[in-house]
């Protein structure tokens, strides 16, 4: 990175003034920048990279007039072990940082806790981060920046309120059903989204009902606007139109109910006639000798089989001949 003589002198003066001496003898933490940009290091997870991340990196970049900003990003293995699962994988997070205008170099596979060996390897002059203690889940200390703070190489940046990766994830969870339905409509399958068959159907039904309510509401608004327009044109009050509409609706419902009643009565009579006809045909063709199965008060007679009656008469004549009577 190029630099003018004025920038070099300003960088040297400001670095020595702000860096200061960290040790009691004044030699351990003395500023070392003389003829090069100040190498500032910032690190993090940078999941779902957002403008809060970008602002913190902007602050780190502008700590000195001539700054070379290195940004370390932890890989998936370390992040999942000490912080938890991320939405973006390590390669996606690295690539997001490379497209930030304030970043000069991305350091992949960054360590969870910064050591002197890491500082020497990358020739880091200062480490930039917000001042809140960041719990060291690895167990090495209470704060992952405890060491760089102790040697005077820590520079504070400010957090951006109202935005964080956790906040974004909470927004998604809050409106989970809407995002699932949106992706289903865009062609994703329920298996892609990890949604059960029942869940998918329920979401589709709920979304259909929601759209129907919205259409009804819009229709009501349009009807209301038309009523107001007509009322103004005719010089009538809106409530008069509403009353007339109520009477019209009531009259229509009354006529509809009467028509339904007549239709129901006609259908019932027709069914009764068909049933009665079936009963008559059953008496004629399906007689089984059990008269208790029929309750036809108009039919007091019985159906006789004339052939059987003839046989009985012939039998009686034979008996008379044998007895001589």
Automatic annotation (TrEMBL):
This protein's pathway: Phospholipid metabolism; phosphatidylcholine biosynthesis; phosphatidylcholine from phosphocholine: step 1/2
SUPFAM superfamilies named in the record: Nucleotidylyl transferase
Biased composition (Acidic residues): 288-302, 310-325
UniProt-annotated stretches for the region Disordered: 1-29, 288-325
A Pfam family recorded for this sequence: CTP_transf_like
Catalytic activity field: phosphocholine + CTP + H(+) = CDP-choline + diphosphate
GO MF, one annotated term: choline-phosphate cytidylyltransferase activity
Position of the signal peptide: none
Composition bias, Low complexity: 9-18
Role description: Plays an important role in the biosynthesis of the phospholipid phosphatidylcholine. Catalyzes the formation of CDP-choline.
Name of this protein: choline-phosphate cytidylyltransferase
UniProt organism field: Punica granatum
